[in-house]
Amino acid sequence: MNLKEYIQDHKAEFDNEKMSSSADQAFEKALKARLHNTSSKIGKLVYLRYMSIAASFVILFSTALWFYLENQQLKKKELLLANLMDNSTGTRLEAVYEFNDAFKKEDNQIIRLLIKTLLEDENGNVKIATIDALMKFPQNEEIRKALIKALGQEKLPLVQIKLINSLSTLREQRAQKPLEDIINNEETFPIVKNNATLAMSNLKQ
Amino acid sequence: MKKNRIIVLAVLFLVFQGLGNAQNEKKIQFNKGILKICSSKKFEIKGYDGDEVVIKSLHKKRSTYYATTVSNFPNVISKSTQKESTGVTSGRNNGQTYYYIDNTTRSKGLKKLGKKNENKELGIYFVIEEKDGELIFRDNDQRGSVVMVSSDERYEIKIPNSIKLQWITGSCSNDEKYNGKLVRGKATQTVLFYNSTPSSLNDFSGEVEISSTLSNLKLKDVIGPVSINTVGGNVTIEFENKKPQMLYSIYSNNGFIDMQIPKGSNVQVDAIGKAVYSDVDFKILEEKEVNDFGHVKNMMKLKLGAGKVRMNLDAGYGNIYLRKQ
Q: How many of the other CB atoms lie within 10 Å of CB of B309?
């Protein structure tokens, strides 16, 4: 007889059987022991709950801080863009110097405006500072093209010298044409011509 | 044109007249906008709290000058002689002879008409124009490659502190903006002028932009913002009663930059030059040497006080001197 048949045969006896009082006591003892263990686990659960709340605060605070910093950076960028277009030369210069000091990432919007500044600003100091700012990103093709274009149209000797030296540092072979024009132009300032000749020689090496 | 050889392009004589009234002043109502000086003449400019630009000529002598063009140094004007007019003078250039006839006796008591001549009786030999919010002073003898200027011509100009000063020691650009777009004008010749004594700007609290060529400059008690670029010129900045309050940006290719730093200044100086000399108690934030096409340049980032006012000084291959007041 297997266990299944045995249980089926004695089903009525099993149904009528009552727990003994000793079993009740043993059960109660076991229950107390269990209850004691549960309070320990509940303590752990409460601890974990506090930890999770603290972690949530940290995440929330970090997110808020990130948003704040991003917002500050955005405001800083907006101010920089506005200052780059200001009527005051001093303000435009401050903006370019600020970019040089505080902006490390290549930002296309700022770079486009700096290129416009290089090509169109009326002040030599602004242009020279802008060349320094753009030279932070020597691999940028738009910047290289802008420097070559600026060399072709610039008239102020000090800015011409800055452009010549920058393009020579970049070893930009496409600068040879504007350099040749500068060298052959009778109106070119002698010191500019000397720098252009030296740069041409460097590029051809 | 052959290189490295001086070619006399023209011999031109300029005899100034009416110098008896040279101490007279010309006053122009102008307290807002830009004063644009496009001239290689010597100016001593002073700022003041007023509404007029006041021009006073400081020269007295009659002068005769000799203009030459140097092939590898275009438009350098050099003074050769100084003498009284003898009535008819002449000069030669490439086989051509130029004559100057002195009509000062016959024209005595009369006024030469025309815009270029309207201020000559005051001893003012530059053109004064006003347009689009700009008051413009420009040399009246910029004829292509020849410029005639007397090197003893000196002017004292008082300007309101409320205006902006744009000073170019040569010809101004002919570029103009139409509908926001830059239209390139015909190229102007770069006029070079040797003058050992510096032009100056004193006690001015408006914005200043100076672009100079072979001209030495001296600024005193100019609080900024100031932007100066110069080829072959030295720049001296002094402070006596004021401190720098706004940006100073100076670029030179090889001239020196000599600047006083008043006690109690809050400045951050980015200095680049062959060498940087100072007796000021700066905090050195950064320093490095860079090789610029075989020339060693020193780059220093310096701070005094809170470092609020930015100073970017680039002397190229020249030295920078930062000294106590």
A: 21
pLDDT digits (tens), chain B, 325 positions: 444 444 433 333 333 333 444 457 889 999 999 999 988 888 999 999 999 999 998 876 444 444 444 444 444 434 433 343 444 444 444 444 444 445 566 767 776 666 666 677 777 888 899 988 899 998 875 544 444 444 678 899 999 999 999 999 876 765 555 555 545 454 444 445 555 678 899 999 999 999 988 788 999 999 989 999 999 889 999 999 999 999 999 999 989 999 999 999 999 999 999 999 999 999 999 999 988 777 889 999 999 999 999 999 999 999 999 999 8
Contact B272, B297 (CB under 8 A): yes
SS3 B45: strand
Residues in A closer than 8 angstroms to B312, CB to CB, are 93, 97, 129
User: Which of A123, A158, A198 is opposite residue B253, by nearest beta carbon?
Assistant: A158
| Chain A contact present for B182, CB below 8 A | yes
Residue whose token pair is 């997110």: A63
Q: Do B59 and B123 contact (CB within 8 A), yes or no?
A: yes
Residue B256 near residue B233 (C-beta atoms within 8 A): no
- Identity of the amino acid at A6: Y
Residues of B within 8 A of A94 (CB-CB) are 225, 247, 310
Report yes or no: B207 at the A interface, CB cutoff 8 Å.
yes
A-facing residues of B in 122-141 (CB < 8 A) are none
Give the max Cα distance, chain A.
125
What are the b/e assignments for A7-26, b being 16+ CB within 10 Å?
A: eeeeeeeeeeeeeeeeeeee
Answer for the pair A131, A115: CB distance below 8 angstroms, yes or no.
no
Render the burial of B184-213: b for 16+ CB within 10 Å, e for the rest. Answer: eeeebbbbbbebeebbbbbbbbbbbbbbbb
8 Å CB contact between B170 and B40 = yes
Chain B nearest C-alpha distance from A66 (Å): 28
Q: Is the pTM of this model over 0.80?
A: no
CB-CB under 8 Å, A190 with B231: no
- Asked if A140 reaches chain B (Cβ–Cβ under 8 Å), the answer is no
From B56's Cα to the closest Cα of chain A, the distance in A is: 29
